[in-house]
Write a structure and sequence with these properties.
Layout (H helix, E strand, L loop, with lengths): L5 H18 L3 H8 L8 H11 L35 H4 L1 E8 L10 E9 L5 E9 L2 E11 L8 E8 L6 E12 L5 E5 L6 E5 L6 H13 L8 E2 L11
Helix pairs in contact: 1-2, 2-3
């Protein structure tokens, strides 16, 4: 059975500690724990910590948040995000390839062929299998997803993973909002209430540039800074899971 790389596991554990610190309103400790894996020149990493923890800028002084930078016009990120309503969960199941995403501490920096496979469970929850290849080696993590509010028709989900994968004892839960899905359920834009995470997904490993631009525009309309998007390398022949 495969394992996440040690780096990914450590980062996920650090993030868990950061969340606990926020709950205690101890933002200084939160910043210290969160910034442990950052390098001194990694402004994006520190920006992530500042958003997660709140309070003044973290150590090493990252650049100011875009919404506070002088001379920059505020985007639509202050408006409420529009989430897909009436998502057909059965049609949404299956494999999705990551076409682009915001860089995240939870994914290998040089990861390729990233994809997710969703399977509907008998109880209405969703089994989640996330896979990525790094240095020719497969890493994966499994979890479950469920509606944030079972009574709502909005496509807002919670996704729960347990870390480390080979000894699952610590639950890590995140938000998963479907911001756009095309009528044929072939392309999707996934966001997060913080707007710090963004994914563009497709049923195929490659996407026509015009379609990609349309999906990026959907993200712009929802207030995302798409300059942070990083295209995920995908092989012409997707690798096998075994």
């Amino acid at each position: 059975m495969g394992k996440w790389s040690a780096t990914v596991v450590i980062m996920m554990l650090v993030a868990t500690v950061a969340v606990e610190a926020i709950q205690k309103k101890d933002w200084i400790q939160c910043l210290r724990e969160c910034s442990t894996p950052c390098t001194i020149h990694d402004g994006d990493c520190f920006e992530h910590c500042k958003i997660k923890c709140g309070g003044p800028n973290p150590p090493h002084g990252p650049s100011p948040s875009p919404r506070r930078e002088e001379g920059k016009q505020m985007t639509t990120e202050s408006k409420e995000m529009q989430v897909v309503k009436g998502l057909d969960l059965e049609r949404y199941m299956g494999r999705w390839y990551e076409i682009a995403s915001f860089p995240s501490l939870f994914q290998p920096k040089n990861g390729v062929d990233t994809r997710a496979t969703y399977t509907l469970n008998p109880d209405g929850t969703v089994h989640v299998l996330n896979e990525v290849w790094n240095g020719g080696k497969r890493a994966f993590i499994q979890g479950s997803a469920y509606k944030t509010d079972p009574k709502s028709d909005e496509a807002k989900f919670k996704v729960k993973f347990y870390v480390p994968p080979f000894l699952p004892i610590i639950p890590v839960t995140g938000d998963y909002w479907v911001l756009y899905i095309d009528p044929d359920y072939q392309h999707a834009v996934i966001g997060h209430p913080s707007r710090f995470y963004l994914w563009i997904l497709s049923r195929t490993a490659h996407l026509e540039e015009d379609t990609y631009k349309q999906l990026v525009e959907k993200a712009v309309e929802e207030g995302y800074d798409v300059s942070k998007l990083h295209k995920t390398p995908q092989s012409d022949t997707p690798p096998e899971s075994n």
